[in-house]
Design goal:
Helices cover 48% and strands 7% of the residues. The chain is an alpha+beta fold. Among the domains are: 140 residues, no CATH class; 71 residues, Arc Repressor Mutant, subunit A. The chain has a four-stranded mixed beta sheet, covered by helices on one side. Strand 7 and strand 8 form a beta hairpin.
Length: 519
């Protein structure tokens, strides 16, 4: 049977991100400090951008609502209507911005007269842009924005080595693993929700499934794939699960060590080996040999990738109570306020400037405008997310963490009409200053359960109640998880003993035996 080559054509749709859209996504994930560094870098690389200062800029920084809505009015028109070229520039035939119904008229105006020769000229791709009117929109000293500008130039700073993060390491391995596209996408969502210090999974499987169009079975398959990546044991829910994954991976799943971790983990934590030996009916010496195997495992596999330097917490927004309402104020202190240099507009419109000079200024100007637009989009998105949180968590702002209500990322996404992934980028590593203290935006999002009275209770509130019970216990007779569950049931909240133990371990509180031993 012979195989013959042949050609076929196919039609497909793909979502291609433009450089501007990539910049917008990157800015949403940046913290305030990262954004400040980026602004400083862009000002040194783009001469069109400069920092504004003075009393006018300070006044503009206080008018938050005007800044949030300014983007709609100032950046709507990049191209002049009807394909009209700038006054100082000659029209270009066949320009991409000319509408279809005006294309013939534009071609007639630019066609050479019969009998006359016209020297060929290179088409200027920037002539269809109305730089004059757009320039005016960003010459206000109080306008503030900044953005990432991708360039092809070689930078020695980009050659400097940096510490590889846990996320980078896992994503690189995931893309080398032979799995389906759905499993790979769900795996990336799992990796994005790992604790940077421990490598444990901060979200439930159900929450991961809600982030995208993935069935629960696909997410569970992706979780098993990620847990076997290097370092083995990441994406586990707790230390016990991480150790079991490592023991199974390294061939110790059938050993006594795995049984000790799976069924008698509390005895291992308290080092009560004689009692454990009697329970398992083995010698203490054999337990010590199995303990050596367990000690070779890493209880927190992600900590070797954790950042060595402490990261300062700088709130993005302050929530203040004015009369009976709450208002939002951006914390822009220390952040450069950008504007476009007027001198470069004069150089761009001057007939004495060479074509190379004008082209360079136009290219820098386009990059600056994209930067300003994306920064303003970031501010607007953060404002809308915070505004929705304030509306849903007013009781928390008034009375404290005891009144925190259950809230999911999809709730805010539905409120503001944005994708869930966009909200996830906004709340990650962003802090807000509230009347109750400084909180990370992600901490407002918790699961909940209904009490006997039908009221929704946040899991964070339940953890706080458990912590207060333990703090008020008798040091010589600490309360057990079962007693805590019974006390919560008397308050109308029914939790199992295992759920109480899970919440206690998440707060890094030892069990009742360990607390008695500590005293």
């Amino acid at each position: 049977m012979s195989v013959k080559p042949y050609l076929t054509t196919s039609l497909s749709q793909r979502l291609v991100l433009t450089p501007q859209m990539r910049q917008r996504i990157e800015l949403l994930a940046m913290t305030k400090l990262e954004l400040t560094d980026l602004i400083t870098t862009e000002m040194s690389a783009n001469p069109v951008l400069e920092e504004s200062s003075g009393p006018d800029a300070a006044e503009e920084s206080s008018v938050m609502n005007d800044e949030i809505t300014a983007i709609d009015a100032t950046t709507a028109d990049y191209i002049r209507p009807n394909g009209e070229a700038p006054v100082s520039e000659a029209p270009v035939d066949g320009a991409a911005s000319i509408p279809q119904d005006n294309a013939s008229a534009a071609a007639a105006e630019t066609a050479p007269i019969e009998g006359e020769s016209e020297p060929e000229r290179e088409r200027d791709p920037f002539e269809e842009i109305d730089f004059g009117s757009t320039f005016e929109d960003y010459l206000d000293p109080g306008y503030k924005t900044h953005e990432y500008e991708s360039r092809d130039e070689v930078s020695f700073e980009n050659m400097l080595t940096r510490r590889q993060s846990l996320c980078d390491q896992l994503v690189w391995q995931l893309h080398l693993t032979e799995v389906s596209d759905q499993v790979r996408e769900a795996g990336e969502a799992i990796i994005g929700n790992l604790d940077e210090n421990t490598g444990f999974l901060d979200a439930t499987v159900e929450e991961i499934a809600a982030m995208g169009p993935w069935p629960l079975e696909v997410v569970e398959e992706a979780l098993s794939v990620v847990q076997l990546l290097d370092p083995v044991g990441v994406a586990a829910r707790d230390v016990r699960e991480s150790l079991l994954i490592q023991l199974q991976y390294y061939g110790f799943g059938g050993r006594l060590a795995a049984q000790m971790v799976r069924d008698h983990f509390e005895h291992l934590q308290t080092h009560k080996l004689p009692e454990l030996a009697r329970t398992l009916n083995v010698a203490v010496e054999q337990l010590l040999e199995e303990m050596e195997i367990i000690k070779k495992m890493d209880p927190k596999p992600g900590r070797k990738f954790s950042a060595e330097d402490a990261q300062p917490i700088v709130p993005e927004v302050t929530i203040e109570k004015v009369d009976d309402d709450y208002v939002l104020r951006f914390e822009d202190d220390g952040m450069p306020q950008l504007r476009i240099n007027r001198t470069y507009r004069q150089m761009m419109e001057s007939k004495e400037s060479s074509k190379e000079t004008r082209d360079y200024i136009k290219e820098r100007f386009r990059s600056a405008v994209d930067l300003l637009k994306n920064i303003e989009h970031r501010r607007q998105t953060i404002y809308r997310v915070c505004q929705s949180i304030v509306e849903r968590q007013r009781d928390f702002l008034d009375h404290g963490v005891e009144q925190l209500k259950p809230m999911m990322l999809k709730d805010i996404a539905e409120d503001i009409g944005m994708h869930l992934s966009t909200v996830s980028r906004v709340v990650n590593r962003k802090y807000v200053n509230t009347p109750q203290g400084v909180y990370e935006l992600r901490r407002f999002f918790t699961e909940g359960m209904k009490s006997d009275s039908g009221e929704d209770v946040s899991t964070r509130v339940l953890k706080l109640k458990i912590k207060k019970m333990i703090e008020a216990e008798d040091a010589h007779r600490p309360i057990t998880d079962d007693e805590i569950a019974k006390r919560l049931a008397r308050d109308g909240v029914k939790l199992s003993r295992r759920t109480v133990a899970k919440y206690r371990e998440q707060m890094r509180i030892p069990g009742s035996r360990e607390r008695r031993a500590i005293v």
